[in-house]
Every structure is written in C-alpha cells, then in structure tokens.
Amino acid sequence: MSAWEGAGRRVHLQEVGTRDGLQAEKAFVPTEAKIALIDELSLTGLTKIEVSSFTSPKAIPALADADAVMQGIRREPGVVYSALVPNVRGAERAILARTDELNLVMSASGTHNLTNLRMTRDQSFAALAEVAALARPSGTAVNISLSCAFGCPMEGEVPPSSVLDWCARYIGELGVDHITLCDTTGMAFPGQVAGLAGAFRQRWPQAELTLHLHNTRGLGLANTLAGLDAGADRFDASLGGIGGCPYAPGATGNVCTEELAHALELMGFQTGLDLPRLIAAARRLPGMLGHEVPSQIVKAGRRLDLHPVPADFETIRQRALAR
Known about the structure:
This protein is α/β, with parallel strands linked by helices. The chain has helices at 17-21, 31-41, 66-72, 88-96, 110-117, 121-138, 160-173, 190-203, 220-229, 257-266, 275-283, 285-289, 296-300, 313-321, and strands at 12-15, 48-53, 80-84, 101-107, 141-147, 178-183, 208-213, 234-237. β3, α4 and β4 (101-107) form a beta-alpha-beta unit. α4 runs parallel beside α6, α8 runs parallel beside α9 (220-229) and α10 packs antiparallel against α11. The radius of gyration is 21 Å and the shape is globular.
C-alpha cells in the first residue's frame, strides 16, 4: 500500500516542541505557561509528549524548570510523558519527577558526538548503559535517540551500516528496543529515509521505531511519507514547527505537528488527534513566544476552512443573471 493511501492505518504523532522547540527560544517561557501548554496538548490525542530536558540549567537555561514542569502537569491516561536525559544525575531527577520515559541521546557521527556531548561514541554508549541500568528498578521506560542518523553537518554522509550497528548494540547489549532515528539537521531525503527505516524494520520488526524528522530543507512531509512506506508508524513532530539547530543556520524545527496531522488525515490515516484543538494550541504560540511560527496551518487554516462570500455577492449574482 502506498503512503498516499492511509486506508485507516494508525500513525502515532509524538510532540517534541515542548522540549526540542522551546529549548531553542531566546526568551524564557514561564513555567506556568509551559504547564498550561502541555496540559492542553494532553487533551489532543497525542500518544507521547516530550515535556522537557533534565540537562544542567547552565547548558539549557530555557528548560531550567524541568523538575517543576514535569511535576506540575496534569497526567492524562494513554499519554507517555517523556524527557531528554543526558546522564545519571539527569535520570535521577527525571525519575524523581515521575517521568514515564527517559530519552537518551548519542550521535551516529563521531565528530558530532564529540562536539555536542564532549564524549566519544563509546563513552556515550557506556553512559547510556549506566542510565538504562538505573531506570530498570524504577520501571521507567527508556528510548534511545540516535542523532545524525541521516547525515552529519561536519562529516557529511553517515553509513547506514554504522547506524544499524549502533542500534544492534542498544537492542542486543542494553535491551532497549525503543529507538529513534534522528534527522538532526534536516539532511535526510526520501529514498534514504525509506532505505534506513526499511532496513531497521526488517531486522527488528517488533522494536518501537520512531523517526525524528526536521523540515530544514522543506523535505519533512516527503520524508514522513517515505518512512510510512517503509513501515514506520511513529513520528516526532513540533507544534507550530518551532525549533532549530545551531549546526543548521536558519533551520526550522521538526515537521510541524498540525501540518503533519492535517496531511495524514486527508490521506486517510488515523492519528487519533483532535485537529481543531491542536491548531488552537498552535495559534497561541506566537503570543507565548513573541514571534511568528513556521506553521502554514496556523496562517492559512485547514483545506476546508472556508471563507464567507463578499458582502455584495447577491448583487453580483443578480447582475450576472441579468446579462
């Protein structure tokens, strides 16, 4: 079945704007506003929300209130509340704050891993193993996100075999079968996404695979469709399309949540999302952030959000009929 024909197939959209998006904002969004936004998103049908990042406040000041936000949100049944965790200390904080899932990150690119995490990939893997071991007794789920899976802004191409080898270590050595393949700087293209996602799905059909796709070069939706064709059914997305990356100047965030939901709905996929409510949440972002957001749905509305006829339409019609 083509990705253009959803035929009722279930697709899970996972919100990352509240972490990946807000961490890129220069102005600090108040804690109460973050909690209110997440509480609203919890009612839209999203299956997972990445609430924040338990990183050092000095490293990411925009998310210095991770503990307060995670403890302050209202939990809705069926929603997984996730957080990015960089190390054991962050994991301890996240578990104490009742985080449902720890999202651990390393890069498929050795250069990017050193630049971003100040560690070699083997050192990062050892650190991930330590956090995964800490999470087990608490029953907290673990997801591993592999950055630059589709290309590195400094190295260029990242061999698919290398990406899959790291996935094999996560699954085989750490027992973690929730994996996210990340297009960190928007370098992915459809054929590449289909190839890597298909190879992963063929090798680990029971694993939970998420694609974290950015729209840096306008290929976000095309890459999503390629992933769907290859068997992926979980996608990270960012409300309003907010976010960015220091290694991709001018980059937008992940694929836009409401744009993706709108497109998938038109193609017959089932996302379980309350699209009007999702759009309403996105339309509050400019006021919260102090600037416009990339979302075209916020600007133009849905395909069948119609406009009234002109006030003098009846006069125009009568004149046309009188000719």
